[in-house]
Design brief:
The structure holds 2 protein chains of 2 kinds. By secondary structure, chain A is mainly α. Chain A is 83% helix and 0% strand. The two termini of chain B are 26 Å apart. Classes of the chains: A mainly alpha, B alpha/beta. The structure holds adenosine-5'-triphosphate (ATP) and magnesium ion.
Chain lengths: 266, 250
Amino acid sequence: MSELLDAFQLAFMQRAMVASIVVGALASYFGVFVVQRRLSFLGVGLSHAAFGGVALGLLLQVDPMWVALPFTVVVALGINVVTHRGDIAGDTAIGIFFAVAIALGVVFLALTPRYTADAFAYLFGSILAVKTSDVWLVGGIAAITLLLLPMWGRWAYASFDRDLARAGRVPVQRDDLLLSVLLAVTIVASVKIAGIILVAAFLVIPAATARLLTSRFRSMTILSVSIGSFTAAGGLVLSYVFDIPSGATIVLFQAVLFFLAFVFHR
Amino acid sequence: MPAPAVSVSDLTVRFGDHRVLDDITFEAHQGDFVAVVGPNGAGKTTLLKVLLGLASPDNGIARIFGKPPRESDSGVVGYVPQIKTLDRSFPAQSIELVVSGLYEHWPFSLSEEDRERALDALRHVDAEDLAERALSRLSGGELQRVYLARSLIRTPRVVILDEPATGIDVVGSTDLYELLDDYQETHQATVLMVTHDWNAAYHHATHVLLLDGRQVGYGPPETALKEECLREAFGHIGHAHAMMIGDRHE
Ligand SMILES: Nc1ncnc2c1ncn2[C@@H]1O[C@H](COP(=O)(O)OP(=O)(O)OP(=O)(O)O)[C@@H](O)[C@H]1O
Ligand SMILES: [Mg+2]
């Protein structure tokens, strides 16, 4: 136990812990809209799109986070534009952009002299890789999200009934765009903790668990955020104790709660 | 003279090269109850969408109290949609849906006043007992009542309803039409209702707008619902006209 406390005296563990909790909270906050709007695939698509950005950063030898950020936002906007303009369904658009981003990522990596170790840290997550600038990024997104808390009611309304929201003059399309951009930046900010492969789970599992346990959207949101930050903190500790990657540990922890909720709810 | 509650002139709407509405012109004043009647695909829903500012006309104008629909003051128009695009799995109670009509966003919490107003609106449609019910556990007809309560919560001066009786039983739909009559009389409101129920149109409406892409007729039910007109709009009408019986409700 005292060993564990000692570990959290270390600067990198403190950074990882702060980033984990905030990222866990953010992802599970946006997760309630993702789950209710059936956008899980968008989460998967955007996180894999982040891979393209990370690879480009490795190739250009600049901090991959700062390349992945605009790259993923552009992909999110692209998916939105294609879906809104033509007869292309959302999942089709995601399927296309997702593949293109991965293909670009593979090409960028192939062009990069030595890449394997670095790329692995992003694919599977690595708390050792969490830098002070990453904590600032996470903090910045959290601040913006707090400022945008009044959007909750509009996003919820459009999640509930899009046409009704439109008839009530909610700028649904603009709101969707904002939600996609925030999803994209949250996903990128979560990559070092969760890993590209598992980020989408952060969006989906806590919110789905909360959905099982509540019957109001408000309580679903509050519970989802609580589960998201609690499992992120707990998972990080477990990952340190058992010396296994943080992303997988947190996701497995979330999954245990989900199945418990599934089995025991009414 | 005050601007009419609803005015539409030379309205044309196209989807691609298909003219869905062609040259529609009519006016409805305060206290009018307009039934919009016509076969499937006649453009009834499209007309309502134009009046709500959800679709733009290719030609002609639509006004609500003299203003373009998108600029009319909020709360002036109450709306009950035809196809509910709602997410049935959305975790919510009926009363929250009703309150959403007050603010046009999803309520995070309900104040005592919101709750009272919502209960009042639900009582109005005889659905007070549904207040705490989860939306996922409402029957089609019950959901329709909740949507109706929602549309009336701000006592709109214009109520636009797209087949509101769908899924409501015979007694329930009669109650619904009487409720609309009553609402229209007490508030001098204008009701614009799409319906496939000729009987209801005949007995409750002050005006009938008969559509089939173009405007087949507009006027009091006795003239607009004449057999020739209906045949013109619907083609073959069988014995349907003979079934429209009884005295008109005043
Ligand atoms: N978004 C759209 N894009 C293309 N065509 C459309 C669109 N919406 C409606 N239409 C077409 O416009 C016509 C009129 O549709 P509308 O929904 O207004 O009919 P309606 O009178 O309400 O029919 P119903 O009685 O079946 O509800 C139909 O032929 C329909 O296919
Ligand atoms: Mg219709």
